[in-house]
Write a structure and sequence with these properties.
The mean pLDDT is 96. Helix 2 links the parallel strand 5 (65-67) and strand 6. The longest helix is centred in the last third of the chain and has 15 residues, at 273-287. The protein has helices at residues 45-56, 70-81, 124-129, 131-135, 148-160, 177-180, 190-197, 204-216, 255-268, 273-287, 300-305; strands at 9-12, 16-23, 35-43, 60-63, 65-67, 90-92, 98-104, 110-115, 139-142, 164-167, 185-186, 221-225, 231-234, 240-242. Helix content is 34%, strand content 21%. It has a single domain, classed as Ribokinase (UDP-N-acetylmuramoyl-L-alanine:D-glutamate ligase, 3-Layer(aba) Sandwich), CATH 3.40.1190.20. It is an alpha/beta fold. The protein binds alpha-D-ribofuranose. Alpha-D-ribofuranose is lined by residues 14, 16, 18, 43-45, 48, 100, 112, 114, 145, 253-254, 257, 293.
């Protein structure tokens, strides 16, 4: 698929400098582990989702804040080179650029800790200053690495303007019914789905019950990104299942971000819902085949070339 976007995407969210290391195993409390392949690269769930959509060919604007420091400069120039409209980004005079320290183990699993820095200053006042950029978009992506009151304002404003609001509830935090009531699509992974609903995902019946619980809180559609198990979709009828693609994953960091960005891109070029989910499922799988949050996110051509990949049979 390489179609011209019919609508603009706006991502309102976090921007980090990711400091990543490959390790044989994730460090235990009190343990020092030796790592290799140190990387400083742009990250943050907001920036990653913007990069995923832009790399596919989407028209994407990223709204957020960085510090007036060298990490901020490095991240800014790389996001701009990725084709993202960064004209609304602000540099904070006091707070540093947010950072994430990431360990990636031999199985591609990660452990991440984050210092939000300037992401904590993504306020509703800031969003008012850049409102014309929000108004230009019809698809809006939100996550949970900026202040909750800002996310709530953004969801309410955008839903009120008839925009499609997609919320990636990551990292897992308690969410108000008020916020969920403004969300068109919520995209929890298994941990987030379970934490949001208090339902352990022991089997398919429990997964369905958890999705139903989110719908009763006001969300219109749940897209549960379940890692190796693939993707589950629930909008009130049956739980639809899209098995995962069988790829050799080396780093799962930002696979969820890749999914969200690709989903928004697919909607922006007019793909029907189930094709958009399948497209995002494939893009997310491909994003795990290289090291780093954004480096292996695929282009539209790479995604098209991989569409015959086999599915996992779990
Ligand atoms: O989702 C992956 C991202 O989480 C990383 O890029 C890191 O910055 C954290 O925000």
């Amino acid at each position: 698929m390489n179609q011209k976007p019919q609508s603009n995407i706006c991502v309102i969210g976090s921007i980090h400098a990711d400091l990543s290391l490959r390790v044989s195993h994730l460090s235990a409390p009190g343990e020092t582990v030796s790592g290799t392949d140190f990387q400083l690269s742009p990250g943050g769930k907001g920036a990653n989702q913007a990069a995923a959509a832009a790399k596919l060919g989407g028209t994407v604007c990223l709204l957020g804040r960085i510090g007036s420091d060298s990490f901020g400069e490095s991240v800014f120039s790389r996001l701009q080179s990725a084709g993202i409209n960064c004209s609304g980004l602000e540099r904070d005079g006091d707070l540093p650029t947010g950072i994430a320290m990431i360990q990636v183990d031999a199985a591609g699993q990660n452990a991440i800790c984050v210092a939000p820095g300037a992401n904590a200053a993504v306020t509703t006042d800031y969003l008012h200053r850049v409102k014309r950029l929000i108004d230009d978009a019809s698809i809006v992506l939100l996550q949970l690495e900026i202040p909750m009151e800002t996310t709530l304002w953004a969801a309410e404003y955008c839903a009120g303007q008839g925009k499609l609001v997609i919320l990636d509830p990551a990292p897992a935090l308690p969410l108000s019914d008020e916020l969920l009531g403004h969300v068109g699509i919520v995209t929890p992974n298994d941990t987030e789905l379970s934490r949001l609903t208090g339902i352990p995902l022991t089997d398919d019946a429990a997964r369905l019950a958890a999705c139903k619980a989110l719908l009763t809180l006001g969300v219109k559609t749940v897209i549960n990104t379940a890692g190796e198990k693939g993707v589950y979709v629930y909008s009130g009828d049956e739980l639809a299942h899209y098995p995962a693609y069988d790829v050799a994953a080396v780093d799962t960091t930002a696979a969820g971000d890749s999914f969200n960005g690709a989903l928004a891109y697919a909607f922006s070029v007019g793909l029907p819902f189930s094709q958009a989910v399948e497209f995002a499922n494939l893009a997310a799988a491909l994003s795990t085949t290289g090291y780093g949050a954004q480096a292996a996110m695929p282009t539209a051509q790479q995604t098209a070339a991989a569409s015959c990949l086999p599915k996992k049979n779990l």
